[in-house]
Amino acid sequence: MTKYQESSISNAAYGGCGCLLLLMGMGVIGAIALPSFLNQGGRAPQSENKQYVSAMNKGQQAYLAENNAFSSSVAVLGLGIKTETTNFKYSIRATKQAAFNYGVSKKKDLKTYVGGVFLVPAKNFAPNAAKEEKTTTSILCEADSPGTIKPAEPTYKNGKIACGKGTTQPTR
Question: Counting beta carbons within 10 angstroms of the beta carbon of residue 147, is it exposed (0 to 12), middle (13 to 18) or buried (19 or more)?
C-alpha cells in the first residue's frame, strides 16, 4: 500500500465518525429547538396581520404624497393586499387628516391590529419647516386581547401619537 492510499483509508474512517457526531449533534439541537418551533404556529397569522397593516400605513403615506388625500380603499393603495384572508378582514377609514387601517381578526384566538397615519404640521418634527408645510406620522397598534372586534383608533393630540383604548404599540 502506498503512503497516499494509507492516508485516504485513515481519513475515511475518521470522516465516518465525524458524520455520526454531526448527526448526533443535529439531533440534540433539533430536540431543543422543536418545541419552540412548534409554538410558532399561532404567530404566523399574527405576523401576516402586522405586516399587512404596516404596509397599509406606508401605502397611505405614499398615496397621500401622490394624490394629496388618503385612500379609503385597500385596493387603491396598490399593495396587492386582499381585503379578506382566512384569518383577517382588512379595511380603511379615511378622513382629511388621518387614515385608519384595520386588520380585524375573524377568529377569537387571534389579535386585531389598527394602524393610523396622521397629516400633521411639519413644524412638530422639523422646527425650521414652513408654517403651512405638512408631513405624516404613523403608528401601529395591537389589541391587548384576542378577538374579532374592531379596536379603538389611535389618536394624535398636542403633537403626540398614541394607541387607542384597549390597544398597545407592539414591540419590534
Answer: middle
